[in-house]
Design goal:
The chain is mainly alpha-helical and 109 residues long. The chain has helices at residues 3-20, 25-39, 44-50, 69-73, 78-108. The two termini are 22 Å apart.
Length: 109
């Protein structure tokens, strides 16, 4: 398997686990499904993943808070760090997925 494909699937697993610890099962399920598709060499997994970004209610809007909104506001809090970690993961996932899509599109031309 292409190393970047496995790297993307692993990042999705990591993001999904983090989302589940904060009761974000909708997005965790979305990422798990895409990770399975991507590992199975189904390019639709990358397209579906990229559709999660942008627009209202997208993956970009997810904030790990749950019932702990007050903790989220405290700079340096555990929850604040978890959101920073999730934001970094989300960015890495998007960048890698876009790169893989570009490569796929170049192969098709």
């Amino acid at each position: 398997m292409h190393p970047e494909i496995e790297a993307l699937a692993s990042l999705l697993d990591e993001a999904s686990a983090l989302l589940r610890t904060h009761s974000e099962s909708h997005w965790a399920d979305w990422l798990d499904t895409d990770a399975r598709r991507i590992r199975g060499q189904d390019f639709y997994g990358i397209e579906h993943l990229l559709s999660a970004y942008g627009g209202m209610g997208s993956l970009n809007d997810v904030v790990l808070a749950g019932a702990q909104v007050a903790e989220l506001r405290r700079e340096g809090s555990t929850l604040s760090r978890k959101n920073e970690e999730f934001d970094a993961l989300r960015t890495r996932i998007y960048s890698l997925a876009k790169r893989l899509k570009r490569e796929e599109n170049q192969r098709d031309t």
